[in-house]
Amino acid sequence: MSDPNNQQDQTRLAIITAAVTAILVGLYTDQVLSLLHRFARIITKLGVRSPVLWGRLRSEAASTASALQAEMPAAVDRVLRQAVEDASAAAEGTPFRTGFTPFGDFETHSDRAVRAIRDDLVRKLDGLGFGITRFADDVYRAVVADAAVAQVTGVTPAAAQGDAYRRLVSKGVTGFTDSAGRNWELSAYVEMATRTATQRAYNTAHLDRMQQMGFDLFTVTDDGHPCPLCQPWQGQILSVTADPRADATIADATAAGLFHPNCKHTLLAYDPRSSIPAPRPWTDEDAAAYWRSQQQRKLERDIRAAKREQAAAFTPDQRVAANRDLRRAQARMRDFISQTGRVRNTRREQLNLGA
Fold first, then answer.
1. pLDDT in tens, 306-322
2. d(C-alpha 227, C-alpha 247), whole Å
3. Which of 87, 226, 242, 271 lies at a 20 to 30 A Cα distance from 339?
4. At 170, is the secondary structure helix, strand, or coil?
């Protein structure tokens, strides 16, 4: 049985999740970076007045979307297979396979649940192709429309085109809106969706195996960096079905916000004969630490935005501006780290999030 006071499973899962998520994030980021480079070459070669520019941009975007759709299902299978196998190994302490395969019949309830998680992730990632294709339209409108406006405002067409293009590519391929109304940049969305699916698959397989071993009560790990949604459940006793020994069911906790997108928490088997630390309240220090973590995420996004500008620059002026923006973003991060004492995570400052 996993020890509730031992965070080994939590650390193990964090490493696994980061590693397998990098597979899909790297796949998408590499393809989109290649697309940005091709866009820059096409615009430079044809010019914004070319009658074939729009068609060329759309053709390149469609090719990228098709390549991703072809590669993505196998990558998803690989990611979730690893999560399931490690979840079962963590439950038993020895390697254990559940029979999960990319295609074919499933043998257990856990297998069927993981298949549903797999299909949901495939659908989400498959839908990103539309955003990539639409990005070509956005690029075309930005450089052409602003060039026309420039003739009225007195700004040179080249300057207007460059500014419009820089603003657009710094945001990245966007348009992916979640149920909370948040608009995600592509690599961040892929990371969130994959991390969430991996965590769900891990928890599903882990819970199923623990139940097979006879455990019916569970507790929530303390990851040391809680958010307001998860913190109330750390140290609570949860059950699959209503149980007077439990504080709530797993379904109740999930409905209240536990296991939200990007959540890092796992369930550990609980033995009523053992003791666990009393749940601690959400403090001002917790709130401040959480806020600082969100500030750091924002600064990381700013650095990635400047790096996208660099990747997409097609004029010397754009390259100069992108280099300037990157230096400023990195300086803001250095100041933030110096003032707060937080650990800088340079992996998250890379366009492919370190993949």
1. 998 888 887 888 889 88
2. 20
3. 226
4. helix
